[in-house]
Design brief:
Length: about 350
């Protein structure tokens, strides 16, 4: 049930059944074009398809021109309250806006923003957040509930629709996972605009990844969501890794090596954790869809890894390499096992 409608952001399609788009946001000073461009490039190299930058003053809006020119992926300007910054960003080439039209102060401002966005073919994402809901909705619902988030979002949507603007995406983020999931489910029933999924202020890498995986993952498995962002404190490139892992876990990304490794138990005869980590790093550049296994023992290892294309298993002091469809495993020298497995994976990738 991915959204029926779609929007175009640069050369990307969001919604309408297109593959889920991976987003992130820079945390450099947007006015520092060098630093921000470098971070956008790093995000792109990690697999980011759409990057958002904060535009909070005129100098940021001026920087948009060069940022767009230098960016390998489309950019979104994140703007609060000031429609002039939005218009300036659009005129400077930004490919998408994130702004809530109900917060920019009156119909005239909305009309001039919409006219500019229409003229340049720039879509608008409405981004409602549990932490910044309108006071009247907080009073009406007694807090930042799912119902309040949805009512707020649909209110902003109506403002744009009243100006005959339909190039819209919507987010209803909350830092509370059950609230966020309920809000998006309600929204998906009431609208068919593309949905941008995220758990806001998700936290540090560990907790933020878990919260995002549960929240975003639940929705994706229901067929809800057209683009995702995992919000983590710190280096945004880590958000891309988490996004890809969530998509892969939901069966929505079939690129790159998926490593399955056993939890280990008393039968384990190799250092599964160290080998799996080393392999992960060693094959991070491989984009072909390959499933590789690292198993602690030969008793259950190959069986547990039966869906894998290739893998290794410990065997009483030895390490065995097994390939899908081959009966006999091959013995590997322990000190080179990870390297040899990685080379086999690279060979498989070339064949695909
Ligand atoms: Fe234990 Fe072997 Fe299963 Fe790993 S593969 S959990 S070592 S039985």
């Amino acid at each position: 049930m991915a959204s029926k409608r779609s929007i175009r952001v640069g050369d990307l399609i969001i919604g309408g059944g297109a593959p889920v788009v991976i987003q992130s946001m820079t945390n450099t000073d947007t006015r520092d074009v060098e630093a921000t461009s470098a971070q956008i490039r790093r995000l792109y190299e990690a697999g980011c398809q759409l990057a958002r930058v904060s535009v909070y003053d005129t100098r940021c809006a001026q920087a948009v021109r060069e940022l767009v020119d230098r960016s390998p992926i489309p950019l979104v300007a994140d703007i609060h309250f000031d429609h002039r910054l939005a218009i300036q960003s659009v005129e400077n080439g930004i490919q998408k806006l994130r702004i809530n039209p109900g917060n920019i102060g009156g119909a005239d401002r909305v009309r001039s923003l919409v006219a500019c966005a229409k003229e340049h073919g720039v879509p608008i994402r409405i981004g409602v957040n549990g932490g910044s809901l309108e006071p009247d909705l907080l009073r009406k619902y007694g807090g930042p509930t799912a119902e309040a988030l949805v009512e707020s979002a649909l209110g902003h949507v109506r403002i744009l629709e009243d100006c005959a603007f339909y190039d819209i995406a919507i987010a209803v983020k909350s830092s509370n996972v059950p609230t966020m999931v309920r809000a998006y489910r309600m929204l998906a029933e009431r609208t068919d605009y593309p949905l941008h999924l995220g758990v806001t202020e998700a936290g540090t890498v560990r907790m933020g990844t878990v919260k995002s995986a549960v929240g975003i993952g639940s929705l994706l498995l229901d067929g809800i969501g057209d683009t995702i962002r995992v919000s983590l404190s710190g280096d945004p490139a880590r958000e891309i890794v988490a996004c890809k892992d969530i998509l892969r876990s939901c069966g929505l990304l079939d690129t790159g090596v998926e490593i399955v490794s056993c939890p280990t138990c008393g039968r384990c005869s190799i250092d599964v954790e160290a080998m799996a980590l080393a392999l992960e790093e060693r094959v991070a550049h491989v984009s072909a869809p390959i499933r590789a296994a690292v198993m602690g023992c030969i008793v259950n290892g190959p069986g547990e890894a039966r869906d894998a294309d290739i893998g290794i298993a410990g065997a009483a002091g030895d390490i065995l390499l097994f390939r899908k469809g081959e009966e006999k495993p091959q013995r590997l020298p322990a000190e080179r096992a990870v390297d040899l497995l990685a080379e086999e994976i690279e060979k498989l990738a070339e064949e695909r």
